[in-house]
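Table S2 (continued). Query chain:
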Amino acid sequence: MSRLFALLFSLLLSTAPALAQAPAVSRAPAFAQSGPQRTVRIEAELVPMSQWAAPGSTAIVAVRQTIEPGWHTYWRNPGDSGGATTLDWTLPAGVVAGDIVWPTPERQRLQHLMNYGYSGEVLLPVPIEVPARARPGSTLPVIVRALFLVCSDEMCVPDELTLRLDLPIRQGAAPLDPHYGAAIQAVVETAPRPAGITARAVLEGRTLRLSATGGPLAGLEPQRAWFFPFETGLIDHSAPQPGDRGPDGVTLNLSVGGKLAAEGLTGPIGGLLVTDDGAWEIAAVPGPALVGARGGGALDLSERPAGGSLSSWTGFLQAALLALLGGLILNLMPCVFPILAMKAAALTAGAHAPAEARRDGLAFLAGVLTTFLVLAGILLALRAGGQAVGWGFQLQSPGVVAVLALLMLAVGLNLSGVFHVGAGLQVAGSGPLSRLSGGVGAFFTGVLAVVVAAPCTAPFMAFALGAALLMPWPMALVVFLMLGLGLALPYVIVSLSPRLLAKLPRPGPWMDRLKGLLAFPMYGAGLWLVWVFARQAGADALGVLFLAILFLGLGLWLAGVNQTCRAQGRAGVISAVTATLSIVAAIALTGVAIGQARAEGGDVTAASGPLASQPWSVEAVAAAQAEGRPVLVNFTADWCVTCKINERTSLSSPRVAEAMAASNAVYLVGDWTRRDDAITRELERRRRSGVPLYLLYAPGSPEPRILPQLLTEGVVIDALESARP
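Corresponding output:
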């Protein structure tokens, strides 16, 4: 009986559509308190996206809901029962509140009913227009009376809370609020909006056949899709939505609702088209089915939520597993090979000392996880503070690149036997073999592996890291740690397995030769980093860095001479003092080189090869599309080895150049070698945390097709041919 009463109460509320329309302005209590307000079912708070608002600007504030487990609130169309959240504003004169920017809802099934709503933590952003006459230094009291219909499987309770936010007024652009700014920005940027999709609807008996093509659907062929109508009563929300996918879109067969059955199809039907790859607003006008929306196979009808919150457990587990797989694949990337050399040297040295091998394996794992945790924490903290940074940000700093180049040189000289760390010196064919310092060396090897290798975004890392940046910070850190676990796992498994270790040859002179050979990948990594520094900092700074490298090499050679003197029982004071002075000079010169790095970066040019390129910008894309030309966009960075491989093999071939000319395409390059906030925001829009990213805009399509991160010549040519006018 209680469930029936709750259902009737919900249906009565859902029959008042005026509640879900544009926000009203009334006289909420002027004594409303700021901060979170609570009932036993829900906590709500009015929070800002930016730290302040400028006169004449549009500020974004959000109603943050934290809903107790087992309860939920509703979308603008609640579905078969329930009622949408409504906001009743009290604002100073001249201040105007806009409509709610609704995030994509979850599908919530209750027996034979289907509702659309939210659970867990939800942010409902609202634009607030601040008048130009607002006085800098003052505050605007923003008050809203929020009515939430909070339901469980057993009952529905209307909870009304009055929320207040005192919004500071200042001149100039405001950084993001450190608490909820980044999360609100993510909701605003990922909320469904029109995207150039063409949609048609035709009524065939009790079935509404809806087809949609173009825009971001072109070439997508999603596995699952749903339609969420803005208006209730048009379709049977609880009925399955079978359909087909095609090369240019999807077709859904919807069971008609009572209103549509009674009145027929009299005009456009608006709503959300939600797929595994995104959600967009569409307006299906009456007309025959569109070509290209069928023929690719039936859609999956599973009831997993589509387009729901990234903080859901399903999305979290998926991102964590993909991060683990991405970390495993990262071991095969070219940029991690120098670190594999260090790991190989450590493994061979401890192959027949299982206790030491286990210690080194666990120390390496600790180094990897600690560094991933630190980098992820810095990244999340910077983003929460309003900074537009992405994964790989550490190599966008010329200072970090210069220090890493010197460190790679030092490691290479150590492996070459110029000087020795952590073990006795092998002199006159006797004594223990010099190798990397035990647990400490393994730990810092893990640190190096992450700092150098992490920017090389593997194919399975893009979704996981992009999703992690939109999750609550505890979940995000777990995803990054899973990535680190994947990177370290092969080495740890070998180090903990006595049988695998026993298969390695016993120590001998061959290990010394192997160490010398493995030094050359470290030299190669150092040269690559010097090249990156040159691209970032310019020729003058590069010349100073060369001097720093020279003095560091001299200092480490003298350190090796001093170790030899001490092993022979001599003091070696002169070599020790000279080595110290040389290393200090190298450190000082590195600081000078970093200081000379030009603010605008080096003379960075586009990828070499037959393709003529222009710098990427939103305006450049719009200008090319206005001419009716396809646009190929390459987001790259000099420190991204995967990017460079793609550019040398798949973006610089004569066949690709011919395909570009045949399609009259424009090639734009977004260089992320140094920090560029515009590129970072574009990556975030595509749910990517780093480069490479390849976009292909067809003429007349506002949304691009995203190409694979590992390109082939054939993939690029086929994409260009499909985008011809």
